[in-house]
Amino acid sequence: MITNFFEGIGAYALLMTKVFRRPDRWKLFYRALVKEIQLLGLDSIGIVVILSVFMGGVVTIQTAFQLSDDPLIPTYYIAMATRESITLEFSPTVVSLILAGKVGSNVASSLGTMRVSEQIDALEVMGVNSASFLILPKIVAQLLFNPILIIMSLFLGLWGGAMAGDLLGLVPFEESIMGYRLEFIPFENAFYALIKTVVFAFIIGSVSAYSGYTVKGGAVEVGVASTNAVVRSCLAIILANYLLTDLILTS
Amino acid sequence: MIQAKGIIKSFGENHVLKGVDVDFYPGKTNLIIGRSGSGKTVFLKTILGLFEPDGGSIHYGEEVLGEMSKQRRKTLRQEIGMVFQGGALFDSMSVAENIRFPLEMFSTMTEHEKDARVKFVMDRVRLEGADELFPSEISGGMKKRVSIARAISMNPNYLFCDEPNSGLDPETAIVIDQLIQEITHEYGMTTIVNTHDMNSVLEIGDHVVFMKEGHKVWEGTNDQVLGSTNADVEDYVFKSKLFKQVRTALRK
């Protein structure tokens, strides 16, 4: 099992050296990139909107539940704690985990299907670097678009939190805004969230592409690869999250 | 011309090719036949350069495949067209886009010239009017024709076909076989077809190579195959009831 793990890491690294090569035709690369942004990015907006709004609401309710017993704590502190939770952890990490499920399975199954139906062999026979041609646009699309999704998620999460607080009578809307602005260090918090997002985007794109690209067999193996892509991406995100948190927040 | 000289290939303890020598001639449909597990597909993939041989050499004209630079190998691939068993068409592209793909990737043609070339090869394989259709919307026979059209769009010197008429009805299979032979004769390509369909052998086998257990055991033409006295070939060719009746009729 340990040998398999290290062999897998080696195969993944070798695949990445094939992926990060200059595209044969930039025109085809840009065309593929736009398609991937549509498929992996724009099509994920719906789920990010729903998830972020409700996540913000839940965080506000949970925080209020913990702090509202103490009359000495001003209610806008609930909003401040909500802001910290959403900015530092919930939006970048939870949304990335959801995207690992949605995007990761899509990437792995599409590449796996291309592998078992010999479409990847057809590219290789033509002399095309199939790894770069197929995987690079997927990774670049996520590196470019996931930060946009996460910024969107941050705003929607905070809005959802403020709305839930107001509707349930926990924190008035104006106090939520005040709490959100209290001692806010924009560049530090946003920088931390975006660094994590970019690393997670690379993990989702590359790990799921590796799972799909290396499929051997038929339809059953494509399904297994799709599941593996999600599991591996999620585990890698959780591990990277710990390392980045330790690296950025404690340094 | 493609020459395979003493090709040896093993996967672990499994010795698949045990010293195969074959010459494949230009302007002819060269067929590799044999039972499943005889080493046909591994041989084809080794000639293509998808597998590195453990021994022996592959010659494309005067050049040895194993001694070519990376760059030369890449340009050689642009001289090769390949028709895969299942067609291997790109699902996300229409018929016309599939055929156009190698031109977009490698040619220096203008857009107008590419349009003209796509139209020419589509007409050549009788695919008029199918431009906008997607692979999921066309029949198996059409998929094979699109695959042939894509393979010849760059006007290759070499054409490889892996079981080109598997899964097709007999009538469509003959149409595909004839198309491959017509194109081969017309453009003087070196065509190598991997098949175990005896109808194909008799229909288009200008040069037939019979393989068994990693060895070449017989070679000849489609006219000679029915009269071969080689026991392995006889056993393979006259396995079906139909061909047994053909043999009886021939011997009367």
Entry summary:
With 251 residues, chain A is mainly α. Chain A is built from nine helices and no strands.
Structure description:
The complex is a heterodimer of chains A (251) and B (252). Chain A has 251 residues and is mainly α. Chain A has one domain. Chain A is built from 9 helices and no strands. Chain B is α/β, with parallel strands linked by helices and 252 residues long. Chain B folds into 2 domains: 146 residues, 3-Layer(aba) Sandwich (Rossmann fold), CATH 3.40.50.300; 67 residues, no CATH class. A 6-stranded mixed sheet of chain B has the order 6-7-8-3-9-10. A 4-stranded antiparallel sheet of chain B has the order 2-1-4-5, covered by helices on one side. In chain B, helix 3 packs across helix 4 and helix 5 packs parallel to helix 6. Chain B starts with a strand and ends with a helix. Classes of the chains: A mainly alpha (251), B alpha/beta (252). At the A-B interface, helix 2 and helix 5 of A face helix 2 and helix 3 of B.
Number of individual domains of chain B: 2
Percent of residues in helices of chain A comes to over 70%
What does the main sheet of chain A amount to? none
The share of residues in helices of chain B is: 40-55%
- Per DSSP E runs of 2 or more residues, the count of β-strands of chain B stands at 10
Structural class of chain B: alpha/beta
CATH class label of the largest domain in chain B: Alpha Beta
Query: Distance N terminus to C terminus of chain B?
Result: 39 Å
Mean pLDDT of chain A equals: 91
Radius of gyration of chain A: 21 Å
What is the molecular shape of chain B? globular
Q: How many DSSP E strands of chain A? A: 0
Give the N-to-C terminal Cα separation of chain A.
35 Å
Strand order of the largest sheet of chain B: 6-7-8-3-9-10
Number of helices of chain A: 9
